[in-house]
Input
Amino acid sequence: MKQFEYVKKEDTFQKNYSLEELDFAKTKILKYISFKKRTENEIRLKFNKVIEEELLDDAIEELKENGYINDNNYIKRAVNEFMALKNLSIKEIKYKLMAKGLSKSLIDDYISNHIEELSDYELQSAKSIAIKKSNLEKEEIKNYLMKKGYKTESIEEACRINETD
Output
């Protein structure tokens, strides 16, 4: 088998795998991500025992360069999906994304760049929860929303709206 050569600016060295092995690894990863978008961390966790580390690193790097793996796009998609389907606080969104192995800095950057939209969403979510739980005392609703990580302003506004209904 022909060995894969990787040329770095300052030196050249041999990889411990063939081009066929690299193609096989990329194909396995592409099949895995074709069903559902995945984070780089999810891919690493799935394949770290079946694909040698150096080969996995290079396969992931090549797929990232070609746009198949992009954690920024994953965050954007996941947040849009959460906003369409669930009532979550910004803090809950952040924790869900961190559970997928995304870096805190990427998540924080996304949140800070979309804070107005996310704050509006959080307020609407708090209002929706307050309406659903309108049979509870105001303090119970506040405590529930606080435990879920909603901002104090969102909680107050949601409870104020609920009182006027």
Remarks:
- Confidence is low (pLDDT under 50) at residues 1-13.
- Strands lie at 3-7, 12-18.
- Residues 101 and 165 are 41 Å apart (CA to CA).
- The chain has nine helices and two strands.
